User: Which sequence fits this backbone?
């Protein structure tokens, strides 16, 4: 399953990357306070001259269908390992779930495109690929993961814009 998402965020390109995307307070505000995820934890953040490497652990809402909850057998979480290329201003990521990691592959890329007509708006472009190899249930799990990821990105937009307004970004 492929996801191609595009959302307007009311800030400029530099602020998006430097004061929001990599900012732990912003992420906790969006994910924990706003989206009601039980956990968003920064595990590592290595800012190098040409790239920035980040690793986070996330515990999303546990509102999966019964068949998926049974597969997960406990609290579901994931670790996102990402690399931001400073030259291309693209963030590539690999997401490893806490369960069935040998059967679920999630990879993606996030970039921000400036709005040519509004210098205080960028379009966050997210492209993700979700592959689930579980006999008889792969498409169900893929569909659920795709829907959950898309909902999180859609619901994060007003939260991001609220944060921007509150913090004068």
Assistant:
């Amino acid at each position: 399953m492929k996801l191609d998402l595009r959302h307007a965020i009311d800030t400029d390109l530099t602020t998006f990357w430097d004061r929001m995307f990599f900012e732990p307070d912003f992420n906790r505000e969006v994910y924990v306070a706003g989206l009601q995820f039980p956990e968003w934890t920064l595990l590592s953040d290595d800012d190098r001259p040409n790239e920035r490497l980040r690793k986070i652990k996330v515990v999303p809402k546990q509102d999966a269908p019964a068949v998926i909850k049974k597969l997960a057998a406990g609290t579901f979480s994931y670790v996102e390992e990402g690399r931001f290329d400073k030259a291309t201003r693209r963030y590539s990521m690999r997401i490893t779930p806490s369960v069935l990691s040998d059967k679920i592959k999630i990879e993606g890329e996030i970039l921000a495109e400036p709005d040519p007509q509004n210098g205080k708006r960028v379009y966050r472009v997210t492209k993700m690929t979700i592959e689930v190899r579980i006999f008889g249930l792969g498409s169900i799990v893929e569909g659920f993961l795709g829907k959950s990821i898309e909902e999180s990105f859609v619901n994060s937009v007003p939260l991001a814009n609220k944060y921007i307004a509150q913090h004068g970004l």
